[in-house]
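Limitations
The structure tokens in this dataset are predictions for the assembled complex, not deposited experimental models. Users should treat interface geometry with appropriate caution, especially where small molecules or nucleic acid strands are included. An illustrative entry is reproduced here so readers can see what is and is not provided.
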Amino acid sequence: MSKKLINDPDNLISELIAGMLSAHPKHLTTQGVTGRAIVARNGPREGKVGIVIGGGSGHEPAFAGYVGQGLADAAPLGSIFASPSPAQIVDAGLAANGVAGVLFLFGNYTGDVMNFAMAEEEMAKHGVTARSFVTTDDVASAPPDQIDERRGIAGNFFVFKVAGAAADQNASLQEVEEAARRANAATRTMGVALSACSMPQTGKANFEIPDGEMEIGMGIHGEPGIARIPAESADAVTDRLMTPIHSELGLMVGDKVAVLVNGLGSTTLLELYLLHRRVAEMLSDRRVEIHNSWVGEYCTSLEMGGASVSLMKLDDDLQAWLDHPCDTPALQIGAPRDPLIASAPNIPNPRSQEANSPTNL
Amino acid sequence: MSKKLINDPDNLISELIAGMLSAHPKHLTTQGVTGRAIVARNGPREGKVGIVIGGGSGHEPAFAGYVGQGLADAAPLGSIFASPSPAQIVDAGLAANGVAGVLFLFGNYTGDVMNFAMAEEEMAKHGVTARSFVTTDDVASAPPDQIDERRGIAGNFFVFKVAGAAADQNASLQEVEEAARRANAATRTMGVALSACSMPQTGKANFEIPDGEMEIGMGIHGEPGIARIPAESADAVTDRLMTPIHSELGLMVGDKVAVLVNGLGSTTLLELYLLHRRVAEMLSDRRVEIHNSWVGEYCTSLEMGGASVSLMKLDDDLQAWLDHPCDTPALQIGAPRDPLIASAPNIPNPRSQEANSPTNL
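Predicted assembly:
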């Protein structure tokens, strides 16, 4: 289990960044002194709130995979499962700055909360207003009466998307923050772990789950879950994950949701589709409509085995923000707007220019 | 390693199909008597050559993930690592039929070759001309003088894309077949396996690779490779994979390529980016230009550990076909054309109608 295709573990993150830039040169670049800030080539612009998302590495495609037009402007990359440093965050923040303020979005982890707060202060010294929004979608990490203590996991995908869209529509910093708050409040995630991942530095597993068992609610860095249970069928596991999500969101007949079935690393897409099948069945039984679904690896935990289910309960605004076009390495919605990244140069694209004019946003 | 999120293994493929349809209802439907043919809602149309891709399940997102407008019209789903039956293929073929002929595209495996040939005959009885094109991109599976004996692996991604684009541009059956031939001739893949996958039916591994070893050239169903070697660094492995690819394609200064770094299942995206970093470095040293790259899981082998590198050497036609828009669950290039699947209903899309007129294709 400890075999990995890596070089010197000390160079892991800089090589990851070099790899991402080499694969997505039209989308991504780096900026700043730390070498750890990945920046959207066509993201930051004057008058737009800068969106910075981040956290540790090891969750690919999160976070840098969501950097691009219409979503995040920059992401500082921490080391494996470790928060980026304040200096790395400031690099990303200054790159994202369009003199309309910068919003930092990240999951609720002690190291991230501390470092992003220090980066906020540092940004102020540069004359840039930065504010932090912390995602807390993991229902398993604290009871409902301590909802602010919860960790942020795969459901941050929805919060990032909504905030990125609001910013792209030239909403103010306060409005973007409010959009993120609404997305986070409407999002719940619950996961199951089947097998551990191993740390690239040591080759050692970060925890152990015996054969024939699974752990409900385990965090994406191996934080303890709420129950270690005998292995169950896909349907039974999905029911376990969906029940608290459904109940906390108070879903009623006629409601609309977005669904994310996320793989943690080594669980196959085939299995993830089985989970989605059951999610869709349960929602259909309760006459809740699925507006859109994503099934795949959106926030991993290296090669951990397992999956999570996230639901965002939609209102008209959240739905429109979710549908807003974006063009990033890990998520493309709608048409690319910038001629530089239009993928069909041989076909005239009447949208390219129009959509770049602010009146169309 | 044998823990999986499944229900009754006997229902695995029908539940996979139900899961895919539930997640992608705007893209996918089923058609035919076998229940095993996934069909693009906006793919088949009168006068267009029907594109059918297929093979066994267990390679998700291949093959059904590439069904959609501009790419494949239908995919019959075989059982895990097993060819679809002739009846299942015929279901897909009839669904894809637009009275301009149907092209079957699949990897070079005995079962597939036999079953697709039988389906061709069956199609003829229905009055539909179907022809088969077999992909053979795996350099490790036979020497250059037996190139037609080679297996088809992840590089089929490029062949499907090119054929799908040519068909979408209303090329004739013969022209689409010729496009596929050119794409296949310009594509080479080589892979490395680090760890086995286990069969959903039995929970047993299909082979074993001891700790500290890797196998170069292993097939996507565990077919023996060409060398079992001590584990190496990402760079050293990439050099091993790239050397024969580079040499067989005869890449020269000024040439252009498309790159696919494909994960086989449990290898992380982080590692795949490290491989791409080295691929890009080698190509840059030789002054070969990368036109476009894909890094991720495009043709898996359940949760096998390992990766493959595919290169397609581009000419102007291949490049244009690669850039041609498509909208499928696993691959979206350019703007969705059909209003039904446009993802941004709140924004006017002047392309939607124009691009549907044949003059624009």
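Some entries come with short summary sentences. For this one: The radius of gyration of chain A is 20 Å.
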